[in-house]
Design a protein that fits this description.
This protein is of the alpha+beta class. The chain is built from 3 helices and 13 strands. Helix content is 21%, strand content 34%. The strands form 3 sheets. The protein has a 6-stranded mixed β-barrel. The N terminus is likely disordered.
């Protein structure tokens, strides 16, 4: 299924929730159901119920956005308004639905998908935009081509490829991405660093040796008697005893 293909309605059997609270919600989840609610409207009340977890997740994997909630013999067309996840982001713990008219466009948020390879690094500034579409024609995501764009290029919302009958609500001049210049940093390799260190140590040793040689020569010169000086006197020989 194409990611931009229109969605279809999915029927969900909803069971009213007689009790609310975290303990009751945990019990429902243990039974394989997801606690849910239907948003209040002027002519329709707020409703609390639960849906089958497997049935709901299967519909989401098929990229279906519109659900027909069958509750007490009545069907309510709705879309997802908000999802609550557990602390690990792995399991849905609550779903909030919003009523819709299948024959009227509604405002929704749709994720962006960037395609192509730019001549630089893609810096995505916006992850989703708002559009107006019929509930059964809500795209799963919107494509934005950045193929061969030069570094320094700003991509605006007006560049988004919209399916027919889908209108952009987000202002077209909003910058959704930029192409930035690729910077290559050359790092010194360990072998070069070691060679430089060895060379520095060798130069230091040579300098130290050069300084030691004159010092030794100076010491030797100081030990030699000055010209014309009398030689050191020899010690008197001990006379033999009488």
């Amino acid at each position: 299924m194409s990611k931009t293909q229109v969605s279809k309605t999915a029927l969900l059997q909803a069971e009213p929730r007689k009790k609310l609270g975290s303990r009751t919600a945990q019990q429902l989840r243990a039974l394989g159901r997801v606690p849910a609610s239907l948003e209040w409207q002027k002519d329709a009340p707020h409703l609390d119920f639960s849906v089958d977890a497997d049935q709901f997740l299967t519909a989401r994997r098929r990229h279906q956005h519109v659900f027909e909630l069958e509750l007490a013999g009545k069907k309510e067309p709705a879309i997802i308004r908000h999802l609550d996840w557990d602390v690990f982001g792995e399991h849905i713990i609550h779903v909030e639905f919003r009523r819709v008219d299948l024959n009227k466009k509604t405002e929704v948020e749709v994720d962006l998908h960037f395609t192509g390879h730019p001549k630089g690094v893609l810096n995505q500034l916006v992850t989703h935009v708002k559009v107006m579409a019929l509930p059964t024609e809500i795209p799963d995501e919107l494509e934005v081509s950045v193929a061969d764009l030069e570094a320094g290029t700003a991509v605006s919302a007006s560049k988004i490829k919209l399916p027919s009958n889908v209108d952009l609500v987000t202002p077209g001049n909003v910058t959704i991405a930029r192409i930035v210049e690729i910077k290559i940093e050359v790092l010194e390799t360990p072998a070069v660093a070691e060679g430089a260190t060895a060379a520095a140590e060798g130069a230091a040793a040579a300098t130290a040796a050069g300084g030691a040689a004159p010092a030794a020569a100076a010491g030797a010169k100081a030990a030699t008697p000055a010209a014309g000086a009398a030689p050191a006197a020899k010690p008197d020989a001990k006379k033999p005893g009488k």
